[in-house]
Amino acid sequence: MTMKQRILYLVLLFALATLYSCSKSEVIPNEQPDVQPYAQNELLVKFTPDVVAMLEKAQATRSGAVTRSGSLSVDQVLEIIGTAQVERIFPVDSGREELTRQSGLHRWYRVSFEGEYSVEEVAKRFAALGEVQSVDFNRNVKRAYNHKAIPLSKSELERAESQRTRSTMSDPLLNKQWYLVNDGTMFTEGEVIKSVKDADVQCETAWNMTTGNESVIVAVLDEGIFIEHPDLQGAIWQNEDEIYRSENDNDNNGYAGDAHGYNFAKKTGVITWDNIYDSGHGSHVAGVIAAENNNGIGISSVAGGNGSRAGVKIMVCQIFSGSMATDAIGVARAIKYAADNGAVVLQCSWGYVSGAANSFDWGAPGFASQEEWEAGTPLEKDALDYFTHNAGSPNGPIEGGIAVFAAGNENAAMAGYPGACDEYISVAATAADFTPAVYTNYGPGTSISAPGGDQDYYYEYVDEDGGYGAEGCILSALPYHISESGYGYMEGTSMACPNVSGVVALGISYAADMRRHFKAEELRELLLQTATPFDKYLSGKKVYRRYVIDIGPQQPMSINMSDYRGKMGSGQVNATAFLNAIAGAGTQMLFPNIYVAVNGSQQVAPSIYFVGGESLSYDVTISDQSIATCEKQGSKLIFKGLKQGATKATIKASNGQTQEFNITVRSSANGNGWL
């Protein structure tokens, strides 16, 4: 596809496609203000390196954005369209700028204009220039649905607290979390069988191997998260170099006050979750992944620790805030921010409407192929490439990152993008008996399945609060303005998605515990290979009754199970099988080679490179101490560069394990020794 063809395609597609959060719920079109599909007075342009060099030279002589590039042909277009400013999209992160430049993300600019030309006409003008590599529209990203939760009452929570029976975890609501532990009895009454033993994520046995590792960070791109929730507050990521609500960028990463993540919708470090249009969706997703386990309150989670040991951490990357529309820039920044600040799993319960969706119900369908998505959203694609290739560490349990997306809820025979892309994981939703949820997308682009709830299928089960089919949904955490108890039910591929993100995080935690190293694509393949096949359950018809908010269940409907055979990805995610596969794969993590500047220093925690390393002590021997030295500082080793050169070194643990490594000291380098 040529650049001109791409621009024409973009103009048509972005008038139709909307990025949305994937909870299955009723359309409420008038609750949020209407917005244009994309900004009408700006474009996102990726310039060639020579133009960027001229732009950066111009910017160095003044503060803020510039209006001309220094390139004759580019400036002719800027003059014609009445350009107000040209500014870089991704802020400078002092610690990651070199990597940003290597990946080419520094070449993306927002071009704002005030002339008489339409944004489509301006896009065509830029597309014709050899100095322009890509052009993208700045889409207005909004939630397309009202994700109305079903609250769990305080009385039901108190009842669960008084009747707890499980010994696995002390969390009183675990009995209602069939997606974690399904004994096959919850939805089985007489001849009505809507529950199958082990139709869950298989984490009960996996918890015997690991319950999560606090070094593993999951970035949740969603609504804001109720960071003060009693079941979530210990699971929220802490940026130790930042102060919450501070207006200063203390760690020089380009974002002020990002102590727990960042609110990309409002462009602030302050996380919000209690707007009238906020649904609790972000908190619900976070609870599925990492609510604190075994703390005697509320729910359990896939990777929330065991009480004595912390689980994985949740980084808040807020892209929805009340009725406020985020844009394509905010989404791209959130993705890059996640990689730059330590996240290795990207939890994305959103995407475009499936290209196979029914146009009568959903309007014009979205992308029909990976080629269309890549051509249609080049900034988004570049940001996701950055995450999948640059998150993690070559010296940690995972090199690269894993992006997990919801497949979509249009009951379409194709998953929505970006999740349907080959490099990511797209999650379809199932009920408690392995049957596909009646709303889930399936077919091409679907990677794997996971429990997502199915209220319409469990309509005859009325919970203690009078909610039809509520217990057939996914129970998790909610803000108090949504539910007085702090808990409630939601459904959708949005809820299946964090089940898989949680299992991925659990697997990385186990790799960290075992000091095993993997490429991201290796772990992704292991996840799919170890999924539980369930085609044998897909026969006959599945009968359900569409549930309408405030009205109740409607007339019976049905879907043919045979239509889903072989189309729900590789099977249902299986945490136990995944961890067992990790135990016999990967490579041993080794103490890294050290690169340090003359008069600079490098800090390393040796415990992460030795099994059981937290309880060991370490001694370092350096062959040539005129080049570098090492001193202990608490649990860290501090290497200092003295003069340019290289030397061999050895680290010996108190259990007798020994590893060799090299130290290289450079004269022209930044603080960690890289040119």
Q: Based on the structure, what is the oligomeric state of the protein chains?
A: single chain
Number of DSSP helical runs: 15
Number of strands: 31
The CATH fourth-level homologous superfamily of the largest domain: Peptidase S8/S53 domain
Strand residues, percent: 15-25%
Descriptive notes:
Helix content is 22%, strand content 24%. By secondary structure, the protein is of the alpha/beta class. The strands form nine sheets. It has a seven-stranded parallel sheet with strand order 10-11-9-13-16-17-18, with helices on both faces. It has a five-stranded antiparallel sheet with strand order 3-4-2-5-12. A four-stranded mixed sheet has the order 25-31-30-27, with no helix packed on it. β28 (628-633) and β29 form a beta hairpin. α9 (328-340) packs parallel to α12 and α13 packs parallel to α15. It is globular.
Compact overview of the structure:
By secondary structure, this protein is of the alpha/beta class.
Write the layout of secondary structure elements.
Elements: H1 3-13, E1 19-21, E2 38-47, H2 49-60, H3 72-81, E3 83-88, H4 97-103, E4 108-113, H5 119-127, E5 132-141, E6 150-151, H6 154-162, E7 188-189, E8 192-193, H7 203-206, E9 217-223, E10 261-263, H8 281-290, E11 313-320, E12 326-327, H9 328-340, E13 345-348, E14 350-352, H10 359-362, H11 370-376, H12 378-390, E15 398-399, E16 402-406, E17 425-430, E18 448-451, E19 474-477, E20 487-490, H13 493-514, E21 516-519, H14 520-529, E22 541-548, E23 552-560, H15 575-583, E24 587-588, E25 594-597, E26 601-604, E27 618-622, E28 628-633, E29 636-641, E30 645-653, E31 658-666
Parallel strand pairs: 9-11, 9-13, 10-11, 13-16, 15-21, 16-17, 17-18, 25-31
Antiparallel strand pairs: 1-14, 2-4, 2-5, 3-4, 5-12, 6-20, 7-8, 19-20, 21-24, 22-23, 26-29, 27-30, 28-29, 30-31
